Amino acid sequence: MRNAFNGRTLDGHHGRRRLRGAEARGRAVILVPFPAQGHVTPMLHLARALARRGFAPTLALPDFFQGAAAPPLDPAVALAPLATGPPHGGGGEGFAGLVAAMEARAPAQLERLLLLRRGAGAGAGAGEEVACVVVDVLASWAVPVAARCGVPAAGFWPAMLASYRIVSAIPELLRKGFISDCGTPLQELHLPFLPKATADDLPWLVGNSTSRKLRFAFWCRTLRRAQTLRHILVNSFDEAEPRTHDLPELTTSPPRPRILPIGPLTAHNEARPNYGPYQPDPTCVDWLDSKPAGSVIYVSFGSWVGPIGPDRVDALARGLDSTGRPFLWALKPEPAWRTGLPARFEERVAGRGKLVGWAPQEEVLGTPPWAAILRTAVGTQRVRTMDLGELRGCVEKVMGGREGEEMQRRVDELRREVLQGKLVLEPRTISNCLWIQLSERLVCETKQLLYSGY
After folding, report:
1. CB atoms < 10 A from the CB of 283, how many?
2. How many domains does the chain have?
3. Tens digit of each residue's pLDDT (9 = 90 or more) over 306-324
4. Is the residue at 55 inside a domain?
5. Which whole-number Å values give the CA distances from 222 to 99, 226, 249, 330, 381, in the listed order?
6. Which residues cross the membrane (predicted)?
7. Does 353 share its domain with 375?
C-alpha cells in the first residue's frame, strides 16, 4: 500500500523506511489512554501502527497501572509513567475514585512530560519534538494540558462509533427533554442515528442514583472537553457502521470534532501481551478449543465498570444456567463482584460453563466457538430487569433461527475481511489523521519535501 503523498511505502515489515532530516522532526506522538485494560490495549495497537509508519510513539500511563514502569512491550513503543500515586487516595473507591485521582494529579504530570520533551527537542535535536498528543476521550483531563503546552491534540475513541454518538447526543437529549439535568430518562429515546437505542444504552445508568449522577457529570465534562478537539480517531470502520459517518450532526453549535475511523485496531499476528492489573486465565483458549464452533456465550463487564450487585449477579448466573448453552463468564475475583453467585454454581455448570477472573479477550475472541456476546451495556443495564425467559430468548435469537443466521453471516464476513487485511488500518488513513491534519508544522514540512522532489 502506498502513502497518499508520494507513493512511497510506509507500511509493512518489508517496505518500512526511516524518516530523515526535516521529515523526522516532530514525529514523536504522546498517547494518553484511560487507565483501564479495555482502553490501554487498543491504544497500544494504535501506538504500534504509528511506529510502523515512522512515528515515535510514547504511551503515558499512571504509575499505579501495572507495568507502567516495566520494560516496553514493543521496542518501538516507549513508556512514560505518570507519578499519580494510588488511584483511590482520598477520592473514594471504584470509578469515582479513579476519575478523581486522575483529575487531581495526572494533568501536572503530563504537562511536565510535554514540557520536558519540548525542551529536549530544542536542545538535543529534532527527534524529541512532539507532533501531537492522542488522548483517549475518557482521559479528557489531558486535552486542556495539551492546549496549554501548545501541542496539537486528537481524541481517541477505542470502541464503536455508535457508542460515542450516544454520548455526543447529551446536549440534544437535554434540549428535547429525553433526560433530566442529572441524566435520568424522562421519556422514550428517539435517536435518528440509532433508531433501536433505548434508555438502557445510556452509559451513565450504572449503580445507584449517586453513582449515576457522578457518571453523568463525568460524561458531560468529557464531552465539553472533547468538543474542543479538531479530530477524534475512532476504532471502527465504514463496513461495520456504514451509515453513522454520513448522518447530519445533532446540533449546529460549532466547533465539532471531525470523526475519523481508523479501525479495526487489532494485534493481528503480533504478540498479545496482557497490560493491566488483571491477569488473564491461561486455560481459556484450551477450554474454548474443546467446544463446537458457534456454541459459546461470552459474558464480560469490561475493566472499569463497577460491580453490578448481588441481585444482578444471581439473575445472570441463573439465566446463563437456564440456557443450557456453553458459556465463558469473565467476572472479577473480588467479593464485590462475586457476591450473589448461587451456591455451588461453578460445580453445577462445570464442563459446560467456565467462570474466570479475567479472560485474554483478544485471543479468545479470535477463536471460532463464539455464538453470542453479552457485553458491558447488556450486563450493567438490562440484567436488573431481565428474567430467565428473556435471557433465554435473547440467546436463542442470536444462536438460532433465521435472524441469528443472518447476524452470524455478517459477522463472519467482516471477520474474513479483517483477517485477510482488507480492513487493516491503511497508511494513508493514519498519515492523513496525524501527519497532515493534526500538526500544521508537519503539513508545511511535508509540502516542502514533496515540492523539492524528495
Report:
1. 10
2. 2
3. 677 788 888 889 888 988 8
4. yes
5. 11, 6, 18, 28, 21
6. none
7. yes
